[in-house]
Amino acid sequence: MTATPVSTAAERQAVMQAAGSAPGPEWVIVTRGIKREYDMGGEIVRALRGVDVAVKRNEYVAIMGPSGSGKSTLMNIVGCLDTPNDGEYWLNGQLVSQMKDDALARVRNKEIGFVFQTFNLLPRATALANVELPLVYAGVPAAERKRRATEALEKVQLGQRMHHRPNELSGGQRQRVAIARALVNDPSILLADEPTGNLDSQTSQEIMRVFEHLADTGQTVIMVTHEPDIASHARRVVVLRDGTIASDETQTEFVTRLGLTAPVL
Amino acid sequence: MPFFEAVRLALETIRVQKLKSFFTLTGVMIGVMFLIAVVSIVEGMADYVENDFAAKIIGTNTFYVSRAPDFQDISDEEWRRIQRRPRFYPPAAQVVREALAGGPFRSAIENGNFSPAVVPGIRPRSVQAVATEANYFDIKQYEIAQGRAFTTQEVALGTRVVVVGSEVASYYYAGLDPLGRELRISGIPYTIIGVIAPQGSVFGFSLDRLAVVPYTTPLSRLMRPRGDVEKIIVQAPTREILADGEELVRGALRGFRGLGPAEEDDFAISSSESALSFFDELKGKLVLFGTALPAIGLIVGALVIMNIMLVAVAERTREIGVRKALGARRRDIIAQFLVEASTLSIIGAMIGALLGILLAKLIAAVTPLPASVAPWSLVAALVVGAGVGIAAGIYPASRASRLDPITALRQE
């Protein structure tokens, strides 16, 4: 396995101290004490109760936790689909926790590549058109869009299937289209939400290899999952429980603690 | 999102759902179809009036001097005032004649009404009888097909001669030479001396059921029992000096009637211009009323499109979520649905415009109504189509744009 850098606990603690100020450029994600509450018909649900997460550029982090632990809420906030009620969130040097809708849309477009459990490809569009979509919203001219989308599809070995629609592709191929779409804009982070949830174990391994390769080539990857097996592929595992961070360990620590065998790829 | 991308997407959606899209379009299609048909017919009538009607009925470069104006929208109030005006008796007619004397103008007294014409053994019909002077034929530019027009001498003597329209000749004397034969008009016997070449018709009203007699004969007295003159037709050699003629007559008559500078004319001067301006006014109303009904169709069409777009937003909630996650801003989503609604609507409008043209042609073919497709009405149809689409799409689009991406992505 290639060594991908992992931030140390001391570094992370240091960057948490300077509340209110932008972290250094090596930090892609810094959340300081973010809280998120929902009003569910009069009952206040406290999904996040002050979460401090810091991710350095080129880290490969899994966020793990059982359902109801707040990992989806954290993912939504990290993915700029939602904003916290309290606390600050710095993404690539920008304070996004205060941003409004359209500004968030811009940030999502430039900084984040989403990979979803259910792929979320547009059913009536070809693989190529799906991959072009983020570039459409970035205002990239058609010819360049096509060139970049083709490149991205070739990177995930789908150069031959560009003109197929999602229903003509296998699950693994669909997820690779989704990965190509997530990467086509050169985002700061690849944010994957249960990326193997709808795939069989062999295809899951295949997707994990793609992630591995991306991490090795310098892509920051954040993966949300509830499966320890999948989480064990990441270089660092953050476990959430009841809206707070229960543990933040390296791959080795995590694997050892759970008594898993280190993943072989 | 680039415009063409949105249009392509909309066309794709329509292609996939052909039948649903077709029903969605019908409202707009029918609305635009009738809109185009109505506008084409009104335009056709306007063309017709400008080119044929005004020249045939009123004459080219002519105006009428009379007590009441022709072809004008008159209120009851005005009408009562007109009823109090003095009539035109021969001295007033003489004033008009003298005012124009020596100039290039021609004038003739013209009394007219519909009178029954009788030839024994043939079912009587009513003809358009005109009692006038000899130069009326020149003023009206009537071509004499057979025989001759009556002369100034015959007018002076009050000879009972008549020049008939071609339809009168062919109705009463089919297959015979009408010249020298007798025609009783309102019971008064006249000798036919000439036949006017066919003039055609205006709005299905034949101009050839005509009988022209000298105004000094008894028929004229029957038309105007008081012995007054209905109107005087004046013709100028060119259009440019028509207004000069009008001013000469106006000045002379005002002097004759002793009107002070502040007083209104107590007579009317009507030209083809005034008839045309009257028709323009009428046309405006026709267009207004004629478009009101199709407009209701368009509103219904808009509601149908709005409904379909709301369904589309509901069906594609997840797609909207994905687009938002990938960086679509509110305005991108709004644009997408607006373009989709407009594309639907514009396609409906284009089909409707085509059908409207066909409908107008059909109406023109089977009825006396003329039709002329104005190019601007086609442009208007497209603008209307786009407008309806935008109006119908704005609410669904704004709803789509406000969807929360997290909720939208969770939608099954």
Describe the protein in words.
The complex is a heterodimer of chains A (265) and B (412). Chain A has 265 residues and is α/β, with parallel strands linked by helices. Helix content of chain A is 36%, strand content 26%. Chain A is built from 9 helices and 10 strands. In chain A, the strands form 2 sheets. Chain A has a 6-stranded mixed beta sheet with strand order 6-7-8-3-9-10, sandwiched between helices. A 4-stranded antiparallel beta sheet of chain A has the order 2-1-4-5, with helices on both faces. In chain A, helix 4 crosses helix 5, helix 4 runs parallel beside helix 6 and helix 5 packs across helix 6. Chain B is of the alpha+beta class. The two termini of chain B are 25 Å apart.
Shape of chain A: globular
Strand composition percent of chain B? 15-25%
CATH architecture grouping of one domain in chain A: 3-Layer(aba) Sandwich
- Computed Rg of chain A: 18 Å
Task: Give the overall average pLDDT of chain A.
Answer: 91
Q: What percent of the residues of chain B sit in helical stretches (DSSP H or I)? A: 55-70%
**Estimated structural class of chain A:** alpha/beta
**Poorly predicted residue ranges of chain A:** none
Helix run count of chain B: 14
Task: State mean pLDDT of chain B (0 to 100 scale).
Answer: 86
The count of strands of chain B amounts to 12
Secondary structure elements and their pairing?
The complex is a heterodimer of chains A (265) and B (412).
Chain A: H1 9-17, E1 27-40, E2 43-56, E3 60-64, H2 71-78, E4 86-91, E5 94-95, H3 101-111, E6 112-115, H4 127-138, H5 142-155, H6 171-183, E7 189-193, H7 201-216, E8 220-225, H8 228-231, E9 236-241, E10 244-250, H9 251-258
Parallel strand pairs in A: 3-8, 3-9, 6-7, 7-8
Antiparallel strand pairs in A: 1-2, 1-4, 4-5, 9-10
Helix pairs in contact in A: 4-5, 4-6, 5-6, 6-7
Chain B: H1 3-16, H2 18-58, E1 62-66, H3 76-83, H4 90-100, E2 106-118, E3 125-132, H5 136-139, E4 144-147, H6 152-157, E5 161-165, H7 166-172, E6 182-185, E7 188-196, E8 201-202, E9 205-206, E10 210-214, H8 218-223, E11 231-235, H9 242-257, E12 268-271, H10 272-315, H11 317-325, H12 330-366, H13 375-401, H14 405-410
Parallel strand pairs in B: 3-10, 5-7
Antiparallel strand pairs in B: 1-11, 1-12, 2-3, 2-6, 2-11, 4-7, 5-10, 6-7, 8-9
